[in-house]
Design a protein that fits this description.
Largest sheet: 10 strands, antiparallel
Radius of gyration: 19 Å
Low-confidence stretches: 89-96
Structural class: alpha+beta
Number of strands: 10
Helix content: 10-25%
Length: 245
């Protein structure tokens, strides 16, 4: 299995740049460069809540996201946030996490669609469903950097918004290939600890070794660990972290 973590460093005065992070990664870990990668993310928001929650509270507006990743080619991910009251309380039962616990938050609904149909889907949302959903934001990563690092794959890129390519920050995806190597990055792997928990510790250890200030992390997103082999876990992480304000 693979375990992933996604980090985002918002653009601001004094924030680490892509070049800063790349230089730290190379100096610290000496990774091997790999093929470039791209990302496209569209964020839409419900215009009017369609109903109330089960406890009759007003429901907050939902988000709809369309995500495409070049390293998960052939498909795009369609993500619709779970119903939620305006107070932040979930309206339905919670979703178990990979460690068997319960995060008390309902997972978003995510499906895949053929990548070739993404443009048609966006046009459908704009023309036929415009009264229900409004376009909020389009983000992209072009010519992102990727590296192999023992039992890791690391992807870095600048997140830019719209046709004017306004820089929003730097994103990093860390993918740990469980069972592919013995390097534990300073963390002792307990035979009784599942791969997800171990991967989470190892991902954090690698990222902390880069000493990148001001980053946001997504690893334990509701729904992760339930649909292995489809890229769903990392897609959920990207969708969570790319709902930029």
């Amino acid at each position: 299995m693979t375990v992933t973590g996604v980090y985002f460093i918002p653009d601001s005065a004094g924030a680490p740049t892509l070049e800063n992070i790349k230089d730290k990664l190379i100096k610290r870990y000496q990774p091997q460069p790999q093929a470039r990668w791209t990302l496209e993310h569209r964020l839409m928001r419900e215009t009017v809540p369609s109903n109330v929650t089960e406890d009759n509270n007003p429901r907050a507006l939902r988000y709809l996201q369309i995500l495409s990743l070049s390293h998960h080619e052939g498909k795009s991910y369609l993500n619709i946030s779970a119903p939620q009251s305006q107070t932040g309380a979930q309206s339905t039962a919670s979703t178990p996490m990979p460690d068997g616990g319960n995060d008390q938050v309902q997972a978003a609904t995510m499906v895949t669609v053929p990548q070739g149909q993404t443009v048609e889907l966006v046009q459908l949302m704009a023309t036929k469903m415009g009264p229900l959903w409004t376009q909020r934001q389009t983000l992209h990563v072009s010519n992102g950097l990727s590296y192999d690092l023992q039992d890791f794959k690391v992807r870095l890129g600048e997140v830019k918004q719209g046709q004017n390519a306004i820089l929003k920050g730097v994103i990093a995806e860390l993918e740990w290939l469980a069972g592919s190597g013995s390097h534990t990055w300073g963390k002792q792997k307990d035979a009784e600890t599942d791969d997800w928990e171990t991967g989470e510790l190892i991902i954090r250890a690698l990222w902390e070794g880069l000493d990148i200030p001001g980053s946001r992390e997504t690893i334990r997103v509701p729904g992760v660990g339930q649909e292995q082999g489809k890229g769903m876990d990392v897609a959920r992480q990207y969708c969570e972290i790319l709902r930029l304000r």
